[in-house]
Amino acid sequence: METADPAVAFEQGFALHRQGRLDEAERCYRSVLAGQPSHFHALHFTGLIHYQRGAHAEAADWIERAIAVDPKVPEAHSNLGLALQELQRFDEALACHQRALELEPDAAESLNNRGNVLLALNRPEEALADYDEALRRNPDFALAHNNRGNALQALGRVDEALAAYDRALQLMPDFVLALNHKGRILREMKRLDEAAAVFGRLLTLAPQLPYLPGMLFDTRLNACQWQGYDAAAAAIISAIRRGERADAPFTFFNYSLVPADQLLCARAFAAADFPPSPRPLVTGRPVRRDRIRLAYLSPDFRQHATAYLTAGLFEHHHRSHFEVFGISYGPDDQSPMRARLQAGFDRFIDVREHGDRAVAELLHQEGIDIAVDLAGYTALNRAGILAHRPAPIQVLYLGFPATMGTSFIDYLIADHQVIPPQHEPAYSEKIVRLPDSYQVNDNKRAIAEQGPSRRELGLPDRAFVFCSFNNSYKIRPAIFDVWMRLLRAVEGSVLWLLDDNPFAIAAVRREAQQRGVSPNRLVFAPRVPLDQHLARHRCADLFLDTFPCNAHTTASDALWVGLPLITLTGDTFASRVAASLLNAVGLPELVTTNLAEYEALAFKLATTPDLLAETKGRLEAQRSQAPLFDTGRTCRHLESAYIEMYERCLRGDAPSGFDVAALP
């Protein structure tokens, strides 16, 4: 657009901009700049147009040019900060919002923006102070109430966080961000009925909100509400195949059956939430040194399933070959397990108060050669740390049984059971296979000496006890159908389940009744300390696995105590874990490949006492020598894998998959 009067052109552009006609508005602004290259508002608003399009680097460039013309406009500094935050240049964004506040100290919007950057930098207490000050100046600032809830949640103050989201919704009843955060925190608090209601409302208000269909589906699965299960799962899978972000990887692998679908889900999630940094810290080879610097990153260095498996691993590493770092970004529960873990590393570094880039820079400064992510996309993960490429070799191990779908993870540690060669194309990582099972186990896991009696646990003294101590979200209608047929077929038998939440208990009791089984034949075990939980396994006769997400640590718990487990295996990593464990403990005959086999084997063991006794006897005889529970052996295999990765990287070879040779 050409015009003789730049003022008229700018006004035309501004009017078009307000109407959302971005391309036409930009042409007007550029016509102004053709005659007046230092026109502040044309530069600034051209930057805003790029920001609205998601072109954040271009937006930052245009706004910086505007600031060079007039550095005293607070809105420009604030908008530059927003663009830099999108680019994950958080320190620069923080400086921008600070400058905006220096120019306009009473601006609640700038305080809110600075709080957002502080929260992104993992400084929630400072962020909370900014939100509180913004609300002191503008008590009806709904966005600041919502963000205050986020800070409170990061601090673990969930009741106050929920109240903050509710206040935001009082001011804006259809506030999508606040509703989403409220639903998620209600789900975390196990108030599953309220969470499902919030997500259901969100589907009406904002059906395209990323991950919402999966979040609603997973909330219902946690409550064992299976109505419409097949249709809901199929709809989400179809959306994933269309490239939509209908679910997040951690919930998707619990019900998806096809590894290639999980790769599509992970790639979309990674691209949106954890893109590789445009400024990687490492671009070359490692430096050869006498000891490889090996760092394990986790939010779960505490009383947690991951810690129960790995504590012995860290203690077993050969210090002549490895210097072992623990990088903890989760809560410190002050437990004996936390103390043991800290002692098991050469260096234990708590990085909870540092942002992702700062942690990555710390790893780089420490010269970490191999960074091992133990969390993947599980709860409290900080995948953004490795997105900055702080180490030349980056590995996914143990905690996340699926692909991460990103370029910054080089290797995934597996075995021939969980990822057979024909499934490799469904993983973005190169596959390294250990010779036994991929899963390390701690052979020091204590079992309480004095276990409870069946009567004390609410179990019948003489009847056959089937059990499944998986979380409720892993139970599926097809598997539950089998369980109920087994209860009907094995006279007087009971099914012993984990007391996960009251909604699941009520639901499975109803489902049992509908299948002709008295709800009284379902017994629920409350959560207790691990040593007591392990001891009570001895009151069960047979563990029935779930599908398509198997028991993982839970399966090792059962086998460690001597309780046989029957599993059903599929194509995905999560559906093949128990098969890996059973093979490594010498009981491959307990692996089945379809529901009919699974049901027939369970019935045979439950009705053939001699066969069950023989199976238990072999498990008891083998478990102390089996590769599954040989912590030192698994550690040596892992070390062989790390050394091979390191040597390949030193040579300049690109990552490629390989098998680790078994120790003699």
UniProtKB/TrEMBL annotation:
O-GlcNAc transferase C-terminal domain span: 288-446, 453-637
Pathway of action: Protein modification; protein glycosylation
Keywords noted in UniProt: Glycosyltransferase, Repeat, TPR repeat, Transferase
PROSITE patterns in alphabetical order: TPR, TPR_REGION
SMART domains: TPR
Family: Belongs to the glycosyltransferase 41 family. O-GlcNAc transferase subfamily.
Name of the molecule in the record: protein O-GlcNAc transferase
Biological classification of the source: Bacteria, Pseudomonadati, Pseudomonadota, Alphaproteobacteria, Hyphomicrobiales
